[in-house]
Amino acid sequence: MSRLLWYPGHELILADIVRAQGCYLYDAAGKRYVDLESGVWCASLGHAHPRIIRAIEEQQRAVAHTGFNFGSPVAEETGGELLALHGFEGGRCVFLCSGSEAVEYGVRVARMLIDRPLLMTMADSYFGAYGSAWGRSEEEWFSFDWFPCASCPHEGECDEGCERWRSIPFERISGFLFEPGSSSGLVRFPPEKLIRNIYRAVRGGGGLILVNEVTTGIGRTGRWFGYQHYDIEPDIVAMGKGLGNGYPVSATVFSPRASELLGDREIKYAQSHQNDPLGAAVAREVIRTIKEEGLIERGARMGEVLIEGLRSLAARSAAGDQVRGRGLMAGVSLGGEADSARAVRVHRALIERGFVVCLRPGAGVLRIDPPLTVAREDIEGFLGTFEDVLRNA
Ligand SMILES: Cc1ncc(COP(=O)(O)O)c(C=O)c1O
């Protein structure tokens, strides 16, 4: 038995990974696996990317960590580059260590800025491992179930004629925290019309728009950020995972509007690695690599190959399998047995045959989130193996 404590629900299947390079993992016996999960959606440029290794080495030698009284040009500069990706020139940025922390920081600031009791979010969204957005008490959160809206027959905009719309207490809402896709890892995307209407109502009432881009950001959905598939302009954006390509750095950015509301008020939050030069140097190199190597466009193209391939497999399957996806973020809901035993068999067989995908525990959903650098032949190799595995599962 492992000495380590692991995530609940996920079975420890490959216990001896000793090396990772590009889109491949290698176990102690030298067997190669194609990593179609990018770790936990993190290694978007692929493992051991030479530019990231060099950036880490150089920054480690220069200065890795400072302290509460010392700044660094690299953190300032990376903050500027990150703000510019959102069109937030003149805004503010903080570097932290995890996605959970970046979301929580944004939530804390939003509550400081607008004095109303509730933040709104979608009932199925995931925001992290702890904190207010994790606990979502009824005193502080209004959670909206958007699933019925996905099949709403009403052709116009959302309005008071709809009971579900009327149930949203906009006058008590200070902001909307939006996860633009994924929904507890089930790879679902809330409808554009609903988001546009919530956006208008919250913004129109002076509230803030917060976006959780921990999973959907940094190219995962075929654009830089998942919110760019919606016609909205956020005030606060949390990023993590792909920002560090596996190194634990995250960030929260504030638009000029949010920064103006903040003014010179103090955010009473401090942790040891806040704005560390090393994390900032990694994030800067990730951003520059993506730009210089055209990886957003590449990811979008590879996403089309993947999702079209999966859809054509599902169309040929008799078990009612369903595919959802955007860019290189795909989910296959395996139909068939209610207890999702078929999904467990398929997952196991894929890993045995050298393809690492993620099984969302208990839901029968396989998630496929390859690095933006994934080779077309590896996607095609996976699709061929997947078809064979599905046939025999
Ligand atoms: C959508 C979403 N938000 C936030 C988080 C939390 O990020 P982290 O695990 O880095 O704290 C995750 C992690 O899986 C996530 O998927």
Which structural category fits the helices and strands?
Answer: alpha/beta
What name does the CATH topology of the largest domain carry?
A: Aspartate Aminotransferase, domain 2
What gross morphology would you assign?
globular
Q: Give the amount of beta strand, in percent.
A: 15-25%
**Widest sheet: strand ordering:** 4-10-9-8-7-5-6
Number of extended strands: 15
Task: Give a list of the ligands.
Answer: pyridoxal-5'-phosphate
Radius of gyration: 21 Å
Q: How would you sum up the major sheet?
A: 7 strands, mixed
| CATH evolutionary superfamily of the largest domain | Type I PLP-dependent aspartate aminotransferase-like (Major domain)
Name the poorly predicted regions: none
Instruction: Estimate nothing, just give the exact number of structural domains.
Output: 2
Q: How many DSSP H or I helices?
A: 12
Please, what is the average pLDDT? Answer: 96
From the 3D coordinates, which CATH architecture of the largest domain would you assign? 3-Layer(aba) Sandwich
